[in-house]
Write a structure and sequence with these properties.
By secondary structure, this protein is mainly α. The chain contains three helices and no strands.
């Protein structure tokens, strides 16, 4: 059950970040992958500066922020 919730939150984070960043619709699988990786990135980056996210809403916020950072890094690397 926990895996399904993580996938749902990852998909939501990937979709929200795509909307904020103006990305083209990449599909459900890509949104889930970006959301999960972005959530891990966001948690790691924010823990370095002493910020932690708790609960489902906190995980969504951290996941969206991390995914936005991940999309920005991907865009930067694709331009080179």
């Amino acid at each position: 059950m926990h895996i399904l919730i993580s996938l749902a939150i990852g998909g939501l984070c990937g979709w929200l970040a795509g909307q904020f960043m103006g990305s083209k619709n990449q599909g459900l699988i890509v949104n889930i992958i970006l959301g999960i990786v972005g959530g891990a990135l966001g948690s790691w980056l924010f823990s370095i500066i002493g910020i932690s996210f708790h609960g489902i809403i906190g995980n969504i916020i951290g996941g969206v922020l991390g995914t936005c950072i991940l999309i920005a890094i991907g865009r930067f690397l694709m331009k080179k």
